[in-house]
Design goal:
Layout (H helix, E strand, L loop, with lengths): L10 H29 L3 H16 L4 E7 L2 E7 L7 H4 L4 H10 L3 E3 L9 H4 L4 E7 L3 E7 L7 H32 L9 H18 L13 H8 L1 H18 L3
Antiparallel strand pairs: 1-2, 1-5, 3-4, 4-5
Helix pairs in contact: 1-2, 1-6, 2-6, 8-9
């Protein structure tokens, strides 16, 4: 009895199929995250979602997100247990911040890098990656091993942070529009539109609890004469000063 056959090693092919399935799962997760970011109403939630997504999708377990304010970093969100390292994450110089933002790409840092802080080794970390969040902030992740320079991981991270940047921009724009819709641009106090909204709420409350509503109306004496004789710029300054005085005297 004799047999003849061919043996083929399909290890690499099988690994490639497994990798493809894994990256498909990660892409689906990323789509789900972006949907959540698209409806988020608070910047804090977006930043926390980014930290959690970096862990779930990319396996980056120790992360920190900081915003850039006048060339300085301020913590926005961080992984649990990184409180003692906050100063290290925020210690980037203005020059390094500008370099990161201008390069618009991920930078790997270890003991051979000019910006490496030896104190990292005190916490047992050997490498750190830094990725700008547009011009708004910096994402940092440390590891107790040398972080892999995997182009797929980096691309996925940069896509995630791109969505973070867009979501924060949208929320800030919405807040600005909301502020403009409800506030007088000259004095900063609530405008007539907000008064009407607020009165409708108070009317319902007064009907429910059978309480009356009180009004305090203030008249600015001779205001027309001030505008006519001193000019509208002076009149505007008086209105702003009146708004400042009333805000200091009355409850919110």
């Amino acid at each position: 009895i004799r047999s003849a056959g061919i043996i083929e090693d399909i290890t690499e092919r099988k690994q490639a199929v497994d990798d493809l399935h894994e990256w498909s799962r990660k892409i689906e997760l990323l789509h789900e995250i972006t949907r959540q970011m698209a409806v988020a109403e608070a910047e804090k939630f977006v930043y926390l979602l980014t930290i959690e997504s970096a862990r779930r999708i990319l396996g980056l377990t120790t992360c920190h997100i900081s915003s850039i304010n006048n060339g300085q970093l301020e913590t926005e969100a961080a992984s649990t247990g990184t409180e003692s390292m906050e100063k290290l994450f925020l210690s980037l110089s203005n020059a390094h911040i500008l370099q990161l933002v201008s390069r618009k790409e991920t930078v790997f840092v270890d003991s051979t890098h000019p910006s490496w802080d030896p104190k990292m080794e005190k916490f047992g970390y050997n490498s750190i990656l830094r990725t700008p969040i547009g011009s708004r902030g910096i994402f940092q992740s440390v590891a107790k091993r040398t972080l892999p320079h995997n182009s797929n991981v980096i691309r996925m991270l940069e896509l995630l942070l791109g969505h973070t940047y867009e979501a924060v921009n949208r929320i800030q724009l919405q807040n600005t529009l909301k502020q403009q819709a409800l506030h007088d641009p000259l004095t900063g106090v609530f405008n007539r539109y907000y008064l009407n909204v607020y009165l409708r709420q108070e009317l319902k409350r007064s009907e429910r609890y059978h309480r009356k509503i009180g009004f305090l109306m203030i008249d600015v004496d001779e205001f027309k004469r001030i505008n006519d004789e001193c000019g509208h710029v002076t009149g505007d300054e008086i209105l702003k000063e009146i708004a400042r005085i009333t805000q200091n005297c009355f409850r919110e």
